[in-house]
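Go through this chain.

——
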Amino acid sequence: MLRLLQLELQKLLLNKTSKVLIFISFILPFFVILLSSLKINVFGFFTLELGELGVFNFPIIWHLTTFFSSQFKFFFAIVVVSMIGNEYSNKTLKQNLIDGLSKKEFILSKFYTIVFFSFVSTILIGLISLCIGLYYSSYNEFGIIIQEINFLLAYFVKLVGFFSLCLFLGMLVKRSAFALAFLFVLYIVEWIVFWGSYEILGNTESAFKVKRFMPLEAMYKLIDQPFQRVAMTKFPEKAELVYDYAVHWQEIVIVLGWTALFIFLSYSLLKKRDL
């Protein structure tokens, strides 16, 4: 495993574009720190400081930081599809196979790289969240601090699933730009499935339940938007704001299932393809 990971990391670090995108993908989450220190002057009457509003209290901070950080995943997604596009355009894929790397090892090297960067990103977000929480949170009891740390697991699974999808699309079309465009096509397909389900089942709730089994929706539902939850802390009497924001094991299983399928399909494509 380490040999394959080292091989892939060496390729990425020799590519200037990949190095820049990787650097950006790791730097952008630090903007959460800037968000915590943001002060908004409201028409000169008073200054609104987000860090003092309680939104960075434990355990809600795990939800907040993982949601916002997951929005930056597209930068490393470009790296993932570029990994495949460069292999074909530079003919390094064929050379690697000639040098003794099996097709299975080739796909595994990409997958190990995805898992590695997802893990590093998760650790980084975890440390950022912990530091911000310890500074701003009114609750510092150990039990409260770790109460919703499972959002970090959801964040890790979400990144691995999304990048595995990008890997599959890169293998499918061989071109970075087209692979990213297919993400938008898949987004449209999922909404077509939703409306088709609505026509058959007759209500939106059932249609959304069907849509939640689709890959992009399943990844999104791992970490729901935290805005309603923040509003709930400020207006607890508003019953209409209540919603299920928790991380559920079945949602993790669905994304892991899609991840395994994308890796298998990537390997199947490479195995059948004439290089």
Notes: The radius of gyration is 21 Å. The longest helix spans residues 103-136.
